[in-house]
Amino acid sequence: MSTRSKREFLKVQVLEVRRLRELIGDHPTMADSYAERERELERELAALPPGEKEARALLSFSGAPVQGSQGIEAGFVARILAPFQDMVTADYAARWMGGVGRRGRLSGLRESRLLLTGLPRGSFGLELVKAEGEELFEEDQLADSIAQVTRLLGASAQGDDEFALALGETSPRIITSLRDFLEALTKGRAELRLESGDFHCELDAVASEAAFGRVAATTTVEEGTTRQGVFRGLMLDHWKFDFACADGSVITGSLSDDIEDAVAVDMNRTFFNQRCVADLSMTTLRFRNGREKSSYILKGLRQAGVSDTWLVAEKPRTDDDR
């Protein structure tokens, strides 16, 4: 039972005990017993951590793919499992590995791997749990990613603004897997309840169709671009960089998969807090409501050449200038 399910179960039990207390009134023996039971349930409820995340997901289905009490269509399960795993991996790689590629895609596949362990009791669905790993913080990190995927799925059915906000908190490359997942749900005429710890979302047939339309209308445009400014450094643990542009804006993004580790270390040593030109790959998400969001991958750094002109005359401030 997930933490959220346990909380809901305890709340129902509290309400039931209170109803029984009203029925028995001042019964000489039962009144004290039920009062103590209510206090015990409330203590159990208070002991549950709020907003808990788990490296586990429960996906329960109803609708056309579910054949009465017999089972659920294997083809539908296959079409659902792959994009769900890909969504979790994409978020995990971007959040903890620095990007979806050599450092994120390959490593992220191992750390974010989910195992199908069984069916949630009382329904037809999938119980997915984290595969065993050796890293100390892998479970908490994967729990964060599953919670984010749960929020994203729920937001995709709520509205354009909610979806844009939720998608802005994860990798833009998750959009393809999200579209595939919702397409399988919509075409399969299935309804979904997804739980992970205290996070959950529910999509009926109408909500799934609306979510799929919203996600399908979101486009992704990738293009190369350059920026002039000051390189603020690269975090070698997550391969994230900061770049203070000459126009006053600050870009934060991931390092390209094509850059070897030794080259990345040398970039930090050579260009940290120095004026230079950043060669970037820019991915722009364009939402149905007209909103746009851009993310960046650093392809390389170079000294400003003779033909390069600054966007402003004043040199951007560095830590040495303060």
Characterization of the model:
By secondary structure, the protein is α+β, with helices and mostly antiparallel strands. The protein folds into 3 domains: 3-47; 56-217, no CATH class; 220-304, Copper binding periplasmic protein CusF (OB fold (Dihydrolipoamide Acetyltransferase, E2P)). Helices cover 43% and strands 27% of the residues. The chain has helices at residues 3-24, 30-47, 74-97, 102-111, 138-158, 160-167, 174-187, 205-216, 261-271; strands spanning 56-63, 66-67, 71-72, 114-118, 124-130, 190-196, 199-203, 219-235, 240-245, 250-255, 275-286, 292-302. A 5-stranded antiparallel sheet has the order 4-5-1-6-7, sandwiched between helices. Strands 8-9-10-12-11 form a 5-stranded mixed barrel. It has a two-stranded antiparallel ribbon with strand order 2-3. The radius of gyration is 25 Å and the shape is elongated. The model is unreliable at 99-107 and 309-322 (pLDDT under 50).
